[in-house]
Specification:
- It is a single chain.
- By secondary structure, the chain is α+β, with helices and mostly antiparallel strands.
- Helix content is 49%, strand content 18%.
- Helix 1 (13-24) packs across helix 2, helix 4 packs across helix 13 and helix 10 (272-292) packs antiparallel against helix 11.
């Protein structure tokens, strides 16, 4: 077996599949059948999927579900969620129903600025560089006119551009720090195109600047790239009600529940080991909607976790308090999202997800995504501080275990009846299956 291959990208799809099957599997025919089992029967749709990425061999499916009854700013939403983890959608829906009778969720977009940077090396007088920048700033902006024209028609474009001296941190290192508003698009390609033009114009202008020495004229652009850290593209989501209104079947003492809930949040604010898992629960909700709507969940994850560390320690994204007998639970997170461009007009299920959400603007989608994250966090903390997280999660996970052991319909009925009054665990389910089969 030789796992190295030359010219893989030049092979046809069939040739790629055959190579994979023969190189890595003892039964190549079974491997090929599994790969082709997930192809779409509609050849045009399959070709569309094939062209999303490179070296495609098949489709990898994730479940898409709906969490209904989200009351956000007075409007009801059914939220599409794409995720493989059991109990996430059930928890979100339960949280949505809980808050729908207590005023619903409030969401506000605080800012929508996005950032891009031209990183460059300048071995010369920083004062002269600043004077040069002041002189050519208008020229830099004008050079992007053909790129920004359509975005400006929609009210977006370049908001500001500044020179940043980072030489105290890295020798001879400077930035053009550029702020953008990309309206309803995520704007990655737009931002990067602008940055590359700015870098080109910067280098050209430096060669002609008379006050630079010869060595100063040679500005070395290292890279031009957007940042996925968007601390000024922020949305706030919150819920609040009187403490007494928190009462329900599993919350007999709402004051005690609220205080314990707040303590759980406080622990996540100061303890990184807890904060990571706490925030992961938030991202269960955030990522699933980001995926369903064709946005970049890796960019969102990176930006959110950087934001959680902005004060020097990794901390909780959400916060809670009781003030004047009012319980408030809220979160502010950075979300750079789009509802036009990218997969939003190509992937059929992404288009469907956006239809279900009422064709939201980028700002409306920011609100929906943040609320889903907060709802997920509330559901997790409510479970943790009352019944424990495993009771609900393992009941939802039961189907996965039954599928793993290919349980029959009769076995499923018997197992479901047994676990109505017993705690679900992987070991106990397997033991019950084995006993039934004896």
């Amino acid at each position: 077996m030789n796992n190295a291959v030359a010219g893989f990208s030049k092979l046809s799809k069939e040739e790629k599949i055959n190579w994979i099957a023969n190189e890595y599997f003892s039964n190549p025919i079974d491997a090929i059948n599994t790969i082709k089992q997930y192809w779409n029967d509609d050849t045009k749709l399959q070709q569309l999927h094939d062209e999303f990425i490179e070296n495609t061999i098949t489709n990898f499916y994730l479940p898409m579900g709906i969490a209904p009854n989200f009351l956000i700013n007075g409007k009801y939403y059914s939220i599409p969620m794409v995720i493989e983890e059991s109990s996430v959608i059930a928890a979100a829906a339960k949280s949505a129903k809980f808050w729908s009778t207590r005023g619903g969720f409030k969401a506000t977009v605080l800012n929508t600025e996005k950032i891009g940077q031209v990183h460059f090396i300048f071995k010369g007088d920083s004062a002269k560089l600043q004077q040069f920048f002041n002189t050519v700033k208008a020229t830099l902006l004008d050079s992007t006119a053909s790129i920004t024209k359509n975005m400006q028609k929609r009210g977006g474009g370049i908001i500001s551009i500044e020179l940043r001296d980072k030489t105290s941190e890295l020798a001879n290192y400077y930035q053009l720090h550029v702020t953008f508003d990309t309206k309803d698009s995520m704007g990655a390609n737009f931002i990067n195109s602008c940055l590359e033009q700015l870098a080109k114009t910067l280098k050209e202008a430096a060669l002609l600047y008379v006050d630079f020495d010869e060595n100063e004229k040679d500005i070395n652009v290292v890279m031009s790239i957007l940042s996925n850290y968007v601390p000024n593209c922020i949305v706030r989501a919150e819920v609040s009600c009187k403490v007494e209104e928190l009462a329900e079947k599993k919350i007999e003492n709402p004051q005690e529940f609220a205080e314990k809930f707040i303590q759980a949040v406080c622990i996540a604010e100061i303890e990184p080991f807890r904060a990571v898992t706490h925030n992961k629960g938030i991202m269960n909700g955030v990522d699933s909607v980001v995926l369903a709507t064709g946005n970049d969940f890796r960019a969102v994850e990176a930006g959110v976790h950087a934001f959680a560390s902005r004060n020097g320690n990794y901390s909780s994204l959400s916060h809670a308090k009781i003030e004047n007998d009012i319980f408030t639970f809220w979160m502010e997170i950075p979300l750079a999202l789009g509802t036009v461009g990218g997969l939003t007009s190509l992937h059929p299920l992404v288009k469907m997800a956006l239809e279900i959400l009422g064709k939201p603007s980028a700002q409306e989608l920011m609100q929906i995504v943040a609320v889903t994250g907060l709802a997920q966090n509330f559901a997790a903390l409510r479970s943790l501080t009352t019944t424990g997280i495993q009771e609900g999660h393992m009941k939802m996970h039961l189907n996965n275990i039954l599928n793993q052991y290919q349980a029959t319909s009769e076995e499923r009925k018997a197992i479901a009846a047994y676990f109505t009054n017993h705690t679900v665990s992987h070991a106990s389910v397997v033991e019950l299956i084995e006993n039934l089969r004896k």
